[in-house]
Design brief:
Blueprint (H helix, E strand, L loop, with lengths): L1 E5 L2 H18 L4 E4 L6 H12 L9 E4 L1 E3 L10 H8 L11 E2 L7 H13 L5 E4 L21 E4 L2 H7 L12 E4 L2 H5 L3 E6 L5 H9 L17 E6 L9
Parallel strand pairs: 1-10, 2-3, 2-6, 3-5, 6-9, 9-10
Antiparallel strand pairs: 4-8, 7-8
The structure holds 2-amino-2-deoxy-6-O-phosphono-alpha-D-glucopyranose.
2-amino-2-deoxy-6-O-phosphono-alpha-D-glucopyranose (GLP) binds next to helix 5.
Length: 241
């Protein structure tokens, strides 16, 4: 793992954005794995600005999102479908036909089949990841098999609590998700992890220094040969090395 720690969050996000801009300019038809949550929002803002300044184009880019809530209508402001449109897709020149998000409204087994089949026809170049405070990646909660492919998961109590800040009440947070599996994530050529804030420090410590164990899903990233980790100093504060 290549780990970079930043004093300044703006610098962290502009560094990651520059990485993407260079990558896309070198490979305009790249296949990007995208993430939701609050963590990638500043990255997407930087990329939108770079597009508006004519520094990058997404017209030949293909994207795959990690996950989606089960049961939220696409029009719900917290659906990841809606999130991606508002935070990124509506502001850039991407062809929406080339964007893929697992469906939270299809019959779940059908949704799994459709997504896995789309994924199997593509090789993700760069997969972006945030990390849950309990070490989840995508919505692969602690205990998920490292061999998992696209699947329906039950959200951990801690995840429901973490994500309730986006909803009017905790009762409104869906309890299930559809997510790329851990094996799917590990298939990407390269993985970029961003973590900021003190509430990620324990998960970051275990991801980087802990044993590789299904109780901490992100620990599997130690086994990937090409992972770039971008941390602010709070998220890095418990690292010992
Ligand atoms: C969410 C998403 C993850 C995300 C993580 C962290 O529930 N399913 O893909 O990385 O939890 O979220 P945040 O960036 O808001 O802290």
């Amino acid at each position: 793992m290549n780990i970079q720690v930043f004093e300044d969050k703006n610098e962290l996000y502009s560094t990651v954005a520059e990485y993407y801009i260079n990558y896309i300019n070198q490979k305009p038809n790249a296949i990007l794995g995208l993430a939701t949550g609050t963590t990638p929002i500043p990255l997407y803002k930087n990329l939108i600005q770079a597009y508006k300044n004519g520094r990058v184009s997404f017209k030949d880019i293909t994207t795959f999102n990690l996950d989606e809530y089960i049961g939220l209508p696409q029009t719900h402001k917290e659906s990841y479908y809606s999130f991606m449109r508002h935070q990124l897709f509506n502001h850039i020149d991407i062809n929406l036909n080339n964007t893929h998000i697992p469906s939270g409204i299809l019959e779940p087994n059908e949704a799994i089949k459709v997504y896995q089949s789309q994924l199997s026809k593509h090789q993700i170049d760069v997969q972006l990841l945030g990390i849950g405070s309990n070490g989840h990646i995508g919505f692969n909660e602690p205990g998920t098999s490292f061999e998992s492919t696209t699947q329906i998961t039950q959200l951990a109590e801690s995840t429901i609590k973490d994500n309730s800040r986006m909803f009017d009440s905790i009762e409104e947070v869906p309890t299930k998700s559809i997510t790329m599996g851990i094996k799917d994530i590990m298939m990407a050529n390269q993985i970029i992890v961003i973590a900021t804030g003190l509430n990620k420090a324990d998960a970051v410590l275990k991801m980087i220094e802990g044993p590789v164990n299904e109780s901490l899903p992100a620990s599997i990233l130690q086994k990937h040969s090409n992972v770039l980790v971008f941390l602010d100093k709070e998220a890095a504060s418990k690292l010992t090395k």
